[in-house]
Q: What sequence folds into this?
């Protein structure tokens, strides 16, 4: 049961790390004293977090996507607030509130920049791993 | 020289891994048991910590893998050894620690003398 859990933990590691060290980690688990195995399980969980959060760059893409979503949501809220607070323009005038449009534009630019930064970071990371 | 300095001070895990490999080439489990032995059981690392650090040490050329293995050995095992750079880094860390010990002794000498 515990051995199956450890195998699963190893399988959940990022592919490059798993292919490079997975068989050895399983070998170490098999060789370890049974009394040591609970500690190895905990180490496996910590290793999983470390590899995905600290070593992998996917969290950057996740943070960028979250940032982009927040920017768009904030711009939408600002748009609605500005549209409500402005006096209703006569039908002949342009009804779009300029400030909200600028805010939305800035939000979208930030979102695109965040996405491009994350993409560049991922590409650089992949290139470094290959070399 | 800059490469060596950039590694100092070594983390506890890296120091013990390099130290475990200084005497002989070892596979992962032997490195772990070697570390436990050399620290008198006070410092133990698991495979996750070991291979995370080995990954960086291999990438930066402080440790290398070699293919000599005893007959009938578990094929999943891989053997590691210190490179010249790894030995230089470990030696530089030993010098740094020796200096720390000298500084401590110098600073504590009047205290001991007065006590």
A:
């Amino acid at each position: 049961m515990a051995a199956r859990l450890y195998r699963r933990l190893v399988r959940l590691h990022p592919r490059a790390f798993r292919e490079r060290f997975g068989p050895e980690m399983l070998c170490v688990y098999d060789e370890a004293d049974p009394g040591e195995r609970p500690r190895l399980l905990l180490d496996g969980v910590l290793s999983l977090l470390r590899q995905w959060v600290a070593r992998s760059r996917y969290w950057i893409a996740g943070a960028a996507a979250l940032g982009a979503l927040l920017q768009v949501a904030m711009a939408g809220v600002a748009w609605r607030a500005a549209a409500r607070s402005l006096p209703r323009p006569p039908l002949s005038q342009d009804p779009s509130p300029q400030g909200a449009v600028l805010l939305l534009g800035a939000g979208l630019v930030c979102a695109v920049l965040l996405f491009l930064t994350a993409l560049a970071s991922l590409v650089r990371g992949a290139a470094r791993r290959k070399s | 020289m800059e490469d060596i300095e950039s590694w100092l001070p070594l983390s506890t895990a890296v120091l013990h891994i390099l130290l475990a490999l200084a005497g002989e080439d070892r596979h992962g489990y032997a490195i772990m048991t070697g570390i436990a032995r050399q620290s008198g059981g006070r410092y133990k690392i698991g495979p996750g910590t070991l291979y995370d650090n080995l990954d960086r040490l291999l990438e930066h050329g402080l440790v290398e893998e070699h293919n000599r293995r005893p007959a009938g050995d578990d094929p999943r095992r891989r053997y590691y050894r210190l490179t010249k750079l790894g030995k230089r880094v470990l030696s530089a860390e030993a010098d740094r620690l020796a200096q720390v010990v000298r500084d401590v002794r110098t600073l504590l000498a009047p205290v001991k003398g007065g006590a």
